[in-house]
Structure formats: structure tokens, C-alpha cells
Write a structure and sequence with these properties.
transmembrane helix, single chain, 118 residues, transmembrane
Length: 118
């Protein structure tokens, strides 16, 4: 069985349980709402993982950190990382090239995922 389908199924069950607990909490006792909150959070995080958004966010954050750590490497006119001596257009050109490379890579990944047999 595909892992994403399984996670989505579990997330759907937890979402249904959350809705049921929320209705019971409103109708009978607000204490039941305390059980609905973590159940809803678990459903959200499972859906977030299964939809692939968690992986995309983690990759983009990691790429941003790598780009930020490399921003000062090889700067013309001074030591790496010295913004006062860096040429203004250089940073923009490097950032634009990295963004373009990331967009192309992401497009290839999406195309490969769509072309993969299920």
C-alpha cells in the first residue's frame, strides 16, 4: 500500500474523530474539547506530511540556509562576507541564478513525480 494514501486515510479518520469530539464537547461537556484539540493537531500534521508540503518546506528552508551561508563566498573586492566591499549587482545576480536553478530543479522533480508509475 502506498504510504501517502495510508497517512491520508489515518488523517481523515482523525479529522472525523476531531469533528465528533468537537460536537460532543459543544453539546455535553467542554472538557471533551480538550481531547479534540490534540486529535485535530495530529490529523493536520499527518495530512501535512502525506500531502508532501512538509518535505517541500523543509527542502526550501534548507536551501535558504545553504544560500545564506554561501552568500559571502567569493565576493569581489574584499574578504568573503564583507557586505561593505561587495559589488551591489553581484549579490542580485547570484541570488537570481540560484532562484532560477531552484525553480528548474523543482519543475523537474514535479515532472518526475507525475511521470512515475503508481
Amino acid at each position: 500500500m502506498d504510504r501517502d494514501v495510508l497517512l491520508l486515510g489515518i488523517a481523515a479518520v482523525l479529522a472525523g474523530l476531531t469533528a465528533t469530539l468537537a460536537m460532543l464537547g459543544i453539546a455535553y461537556s467542554p472538557f471533551v474539547l480538550l481531547a479534540a484539540i490534540p486529535t485535530g493537531a495530529a490529523a493536520y500534521f499527518l495530512w501535512y506530511q502525506a500531502s508532501g508540503r512538509l518535505k517541500e518546506d523543509m527542502r526550501s528552508r534548507a536551501a535558504g540556509r545553504r544560500a545564506a551561508s554561501r552568500a559571502g563566498e567569493g565576493a569581489p573586492g574584499g574578504t568573503p562576507g564583507s557586505p561593505a566591499k561587495r559589488a551591489p549587482g553581484w549579490v542580485t545576480a547570484v541570488a537570481s541564478a540560484r532562484v532560477a536553478r531552484a525553480v528548474v530543479t523543482a519543475g523537474r522533480a514535479v515532472a518526475a513525480r507525475q511521470a512515475a508509475p503508481r
